[in-house]
Specification:
The structure is a single chain. The chain is mainly beta. Helices cover 6% and strands 43% of the residues. It has nine helices and 83 strands. Strands 36, 37, 40, 41, 42, 45, 46, 53 and 54 form a nine-stranded mixed β-sheet that branches. Strands 71, 73, 74, 75, 78, 81, 82 and 83 form an eight-stranded mixed β-sheet that branches. Strand 1 and strand 2 (33-38) form a beta hairpin. The termini are far apart.
Length: 1246
């Protein structure tokens, strides 16, 4: 048994917590009063139920069945009160006073308000919904030819994808089935691209309801459906289920579409079902099926939700009914004649007063006994009739009433004598009349507040915030860009929303009812009538005595009802919402979304109180005590009077003693103003006011500037915007909903368009362009020369009038990088970095000009230099547009600049003169071949005009004064002696058909240098006399030997030339006949010593056999052909001389005519002798053997003169104190009157 004690104790503790104490009878004694908790039962319906001593119902109020209150001996019921389970009094029960008990027949009932508990059914889920869209074949004219989609029906509000507010268009298209490659015969939209904001989903209840009351013993108690309110069902915590798969009709599964947004509850048809709204955007074809017909396709979108169901249950029998008993007043009083005549009788009456105040006149009763203290004097029977036995004497008559069940034990004594005379009245008559009693009446009314009924309602709401907004370019009111047309990345946007300052929903209900006063008045009526008196007996006999007056009192209980009307206003529903925040979404915003929290916003204030209990609103007035003095009622002989009906009189008294009830409304204070006053009034509560309509917030409340557009966003046109504004439910709501979210309408689209321009330029090196015919449409790039590329960041983009913020301006802010790509190798400016051809070179955005250097091995010719300026937001697979990316599909502005790579013709010099007078200039030792290194250059400058380092007199032309040795200074060159010279070219002059053309012309300069004229030269050949140089008879051929003894060609040049010829000019068959080494030896020892015909006196063409290659062979970058680099610079070797016997005449002179006039001989005055014949060279390069279109000009190029670049002096001083009249191209002065024939050893070469 010991093992069972503890579980039993625990069970009792648990029951004491769950079972209301009102089912236990507890008696408490205190100062004559006792209290007792009385059991009671509720009158519910079949669905209500009892569990654990508590009664659960779906109704907020229930009546009790008639309450039975047992009597207590000696006690009356003072009051009855409802208490909570701790015993705290909640309110009193209106009952009649003076009652000792209540039986079921008394029909004592009351109506209770149930204790309301929230109940919740958690995590209910629907089976999942699917919305299907269909696209028909391109040839189905009844279905848009496939250009638009149709919704498959159901609870939808968007039926087709035709353009409209919910279908903005811009959907990607497709033209073939990706699975079968079946053509659709046109471009069809891939998916609908619509948003339906009015979809609906049914969520059935699948889970039980449990009480939600943290900290309460009933928390998490399962509640049957019968105990749950059917009219208060709502949904809470509605969430989207994205993880549970949903089956579709195609036998596959899917998941809730990511665009799904859950909305509000729109219907609650029953306890087991709710309907919610939701929104979906049909912007993908994740779940799709292509049909057999071309273009026919179906897409579908899943949705699945979970929600909690909330309602209420009402708990009864959690209150106790306490009855207070008070001591009652009871007594017994004997009345009648105080004496009895001898041998006479008299009737006594014992009047019993019970504890409940009722009066009962008794003579004979089963609980009443009579006795006499002296039976020898007088006796009394069981009916209170006293009989005299002795003629005189006294006795005490005792009446005793005993009833244990009523706790009554009352007695009274009455002193009587036996006598006669006036002082003694007996039942037979006499003067002893009974005392006439007085009537009285008193009572009270108890009230019961009747349940109110709804009457008038005041409903008003503004639950549409009218939200609208914009996304525009900063700064507001001074927008630099029109975002509808375009705004670049790295610019900022502002978001601005306008909406109502608050939202509200009100439902004021006028409640009307009656207070019922149950009145009970006890009226005691005094009655008087007569009965035959007792016989008067004498010795002679008995005679009837005089009538005896009889009196008594009779009580009558009056019950009636009074009614007092009442009305008050209560809050059926009160919801006020303040702005929490607003969100706007757009592709261009940071992270795609910005949140705007209110600034300078004063939320509405709300204070409310409400109580559904009518007792909190209606306070009935108590009826003043009712006091009534009824008249004496008189009757006749043996005819007691009947009791009258004073109901109307008493009710009138009660009416006048009962004021109207005091009432108060629920209370609503909004923004400091009272809309519903809770002040106490009489009978009717004051009519409340409606909510004021909200005004639109200031434009600074929901405003957020400086939203930088990320430079990672690619260009996009017309990106859609959306927004939501969040309103929070204020505390003080009554039966309110949840926080609300509303769309922000009218938000504009934004076009992201980051501009770049490209108006590139390449420097045109005209000062070094030796082209015979320059190309004005191409920039000249000269080998081994620097050049500049200029890539500005400014220029014309879209028209600023139509596209604010664009136009002709600097766009550097939006550049990621500038790039240039050359189709040929280049170096950077300092030649520290080699850049191979077709390499994109990054240029810093803020660097306008960038120098480069052109290597010598680049092929001459026309090229296109490519430029691209890349926008900061360009994707990896960007596309480009010429000059400016005015089409936002492109992120790169491209440009091309046509250029021409051009070589050089330069470094003409004389390296030897066969005249013996000049041997000591060029030879280290007379008779020896070793060269002194001296050469006569065109001038004192090098190829680009920089000082070469040579000094006077070592520059052209060779003239009197050019000889450095004293005694030879005035000497020129005698005719017949040749000069050796060489010159250089750069570029593509290494071909077998390439060459340098030299065209001599001849001038005569007077000995003192005072005059100069162009002349024709004549010479003799054998028997042929006076052959004019350049005439048809001038057939004298000129030859040059490359490796002549006194030419001093470096062996490395000869070896390089031989290697190049062997490698690149010999055929494979020719190469097979010898090795490279053998070929090189043969070339140096044999080939280079062979004569090469170069022309005549009036023209020379230096061709490939007398050309060497002197380009660089070291420090060549990887990937560059060293042979090609070596071949890029060429040296050309040549000789020239005048005939030993040469005759100069004025240009164009007709010798035949002169000869007819005067005989001509060598001494004829016709021939110019006193001076010098100047040989002038016009030097040109020829490519591919094309003599009709010389490539480069040494002197006569349109854009530059290399002869002058070399520093040629056109008027050097002579020894005569004047200046030589020189012309560009002058190479050597020959003595007009001195010939090599005059030298003793003129035929011996040196």
């Amino acid at each position: 048994m010991k093992n069972r004690i503890l579980p039993l104790v625990l069970l009792m503790v648990l029951l004491s917590q769950l079972i209301p104490t009102s089912i236990f009878l507890n008696t408490v004694s205190a100062a004559g009063e006792i209290t007792e908790f009385i059991a009671y039962e509720m009158k519910g319906d079949a669905d209500d139920y009892l569990y654990g001593g508590l009664y659960f119902s779906d109704k907020p109020t229930l009546p009790t069945i008639p309450i039975v209150v047992p009597s207590k001996p000696g006690k009356i019921i003072k009051k009855m009160e409802w208490t909570d389970k701790e015993g705290t009094v909640l309110r009193a029960l209106s009952i009649p006073t003076g009652k000792a008990e209540f039986k079921a027949s008394d029909n004592l009932k009351d109506t209770l308000n149930g204790t309301r508990y929230t109940v919740r059914s958690k995590n209910n889920s629907n089976y999942g919904g699917i919305y299907y869209w269909d696209r028909w074949t391109a040839g189905d004219s009844g279905n848009f030819n496939g250009k638009y989609w149709r919704a498959g029906g159901g609870q939808v509000s968007v039926y087709t994808s035709e353009p409209g507010p919910n279908c903005p268009g811009g959907v990607p298209t497709e033209n073939k089935n990706p699975n079968t490659w079946q053509s659709f015969n046109g471009n069809l939209p891939r998916y609908p691209g619509c948003t339906d904001p009015n979809l609906a989903a049914n969520i059935p209840r699948t889970e039980a309801f449990y009480i939600v009351a943290n900290g309460d013993s009933l928390h998490d108690l399962w509640i049957k459906d019968g105990g749950i309110s059917k009219t208060d069902v709502k949904a809470s915590h509605t969430i989207i289920d994205s993880t549970t798969p949903i089956n579709d009709v195609h036998g596959t599964q899917g998941y809730t579409d990511p665009s799904t947004v859950a909305g509000q509850v729109i219907d609650v048809p029953s306890l087991n079902l709710i309907t919610i709204s939701f929104k979906q955007t049909f912007n993908n074809d994740t779940y799709s099926k292509y049909w057999a017909n071309p273009g026919a396709k179906q897409v579908w979108y899943f949705s699945k939700f979970r929600a909690d169901f909330d309602s209420y249950t009402y708990v009864y029998k959690d209150k106790k009914l306490k009855v207070t008993y008070a001591d009652g007043t009871s007594g017994l009083e004997i009345s009648g004649n105080i004496c009895v005549a001898p041998n006479g009788t008299t009737q006594l009456t014992a009047t019993l007063t019970k504890i409940d105040g009722s009066v009962w006149p008794l003579q004979s009763h089963g609980k009443l006994t009579w006795s006499s203290s002296n039976t020898s004097t007088m006796t009394v029977n069981s009916s209170g009739l006293v009989a005299a036995v002795a003629p005189t004497g006294t006795a005490t008559i005792t009446a005793h009433f005993v009833d244990a069940t009523q706790a009554l034990d009352e007695k009274d004594t009455f002193e009587m004598t036996v006598g006669s005379g006036a002082s003694c009245t007996n039942s037979g008559g006499g003067d002893n009349q009974p005392e006439i009693p007085e009537g009285n009446g008193s009572g009270q009314c108890s009230w019961t507040i009747g349940s109110p009924s709804p009457e008038t309602v005041m409903r008003q709401s503004d639950m549409d915030p009218g939200a609208n907004g914009v996304i525009r370019a900063d700064d507001r009111d001074s927008e630099k860009f029109d975002v509808l047309k375009g705004i670049p990345t790295s610019e900022s946007l502002y978001t601005n929303a306008l909406a109502d300052e608050y939202l509200f929903k009100q439902d004021w209900g006028k409640m009307s009812g009656k207070t019922t006063y149950d009145c009970t008045v006890e009226v005691t009526y005094a009655r008087q009538w007569t009965v035959p008196g007792p016989q008067v007996c004498t010795e002679t006999g008995c005679t009837p005595g005089p009538p005896v007056t009889k009196t008594d009192t009779q009580s009558k209980t009056y019950t009636f009802q009074l009614f007092r009307d009442y009305s008050y206003w209560k809050i059926n529903n009160l919801e006020v919402y303040k702005i929490n925040q607003a969100e706007m979404s757009n592709y261009a915003l940071p992270g795609g979304k910005v949140i705007m929290t209110p600034s300078g916003y004063t939320p509405p204030s709300l204070d409310s109180s409400n109580d559904p209990d009518v007792n909190s609103h209606v306070r009935p007035a108590n009826t003043s005590s009712i006091t009534f003095s009824p008249p004496l009622l008189t009757g006749g002989l043996n005819s007691p009077p009947s009791l009258p009906d004073h109901t109307s009189t008493l009710k009138g008294m009660a009416e006048s003693n009962t004021p109207q009830s005091k009432v108060s409304n629920d209370m609503v204070n909004f923004n400091g103003s009272t809309l519903m006053s809770s002040s106490e009034t009489t009978k009717d509560g004051p009519i409340p006011s409606n909510f004021p309509n909200p005004t639109t917030i200031n434009r600074d409340v929901l405003y957020k500037p400086s939203n930088m557009i990320s430079n990672t966003l690619i260009n996009k046109a017309n990106t859609t915007s959306s927004g939501e504004i969040y309103y929070d439910l204020l505390p003080g709501n009554v039966n309110g909903g949840d926080n609300k979210v509303f769309p922000i309408s009218g938000i504009n689209k934004v076009t992201v368009h980051t501009p770049v321009v490209n108006y590139a330029w390449v420097s045109d090196d005209q000062p070094h362009n030796q082209k015979t015919v320059p190309n004005a449409n191409r920039a000249a790039l000269i080998l081994e020369r620097p050049f500049i590329v200029r890539i500005p960041t400014s220029g014309q983009h879209l028209d600023a009038g139509s596209y604010p913020g664009y136009g002709n301006r600097d766009y550097a802010k939006y550049f990621r990088i500038k790039q240039v790509r050359f189709p040929f190798d280049v170096y950077n400016e300092g030649r520290s970095q080699f850049i191979p051809a077709k390499t994109w070179v990054d240029i810093p955005v803020n660097q306008l000009d960038t120098p480069f250097y052109l290597p010598v091995w680049v092929d001459e010719g026309d090229y296109e230099v490519e430029f691209r300026n890349i926008a900061e937001n360009a994707p990896a697979n960007f596309s480009e547009q010429q000059d400016a990316n005015t089409n936002l599909a492109h992120h790169v502005a491209a440009d091309t600049v046509p250029v021409e790579v051009i070589g050089r013709l330069y470094d003409f010099r004389v390296t030897d003169i066969s005249d013996y007078n000049w041997e000591n200039v060029f030879r280290k030792q007379i008779g020896r071949p070793e060269h002194t290194g001296v050469g006569y250059w065109t001038g004192l400058n090098s190829i680009d005009g920089d000082p070469r380092g040579n000094l006077a007199p070592f520059f052209l032309p060779i003239r009197p004064g050019s000889h450095p040795v004293q005694g030879f200074k005035n000497g020129a060159v005698k005719t017949g002696y040749h000069i050796k010279f060489d010159l250089k070219t750069k570029g593509n002059m290494f071909g077998k058909q390439d060459g340098v053309r030299i065209t001599p012309s001849f001038h005569f300069v007077s000995r003192d240098g005072s005059s100069r004229q162009e002349v024709d030269l004549y010479y003799h050949r054998g028997q042929e006399r006076l052959i004019r140089i350049g005439s048809a008879q001038d057939l004298e051929k000129r030859f040059v030997v490359l490796n002549a003894r006194l030419r001093n060609v470096p062996s490395t040049e000869l070896g390089d030339a031989a290697r190049y010829r062997y490698t690149y000019e010999l055929t494979p068959q020719e190469q097979s006949q010898s090795t490279l080494a053998e070929y090189m030896v043969r070339f140096v020892d044999q080939t280079s010593h062979q004569k090469t015909w170069v022309g005549r006196y009036d023209w020379l063409i230096l061709s490939s056999p007398i050309r060497t290659l002197i380009g660089p062979k070291t420090d060549i970058p990887p990937g560059v052909n060293v042979d090609r680099a070596n071949a890029a610079i060429q040296r050309w070797y040549g000789d020239y001389s005048l005939p030993a016997d040469v005759y100069a005449v004025q240009k164009g002179a007709d010798l035949e005519s002169l000869a007819r006039q005067h005989p001509l001989d060598e001494k004829s005055a016709t021939f110019l002798k006193d001076g010098y014949i100047v040989v002038n060279f016009n030097v040109e390069s020829l490519q591919g053997g094309n003599t009709d279109a010389p490539h480069l000009q040494y002197i006569h190029a349109p854009l530059m003169n290399q002869w002058q670049m070399d520093g040629f002096n056109r008027s050097p001083a002579n020894s005569q104190g004047s200046n030589w009249p020189l012309k560009d191209g002058d190479v050597v002065f020959y003595h007009a009157d001195q010939s090599s024939r005059n030298d003793f050893q003129s035929q011996v070469p040196h």
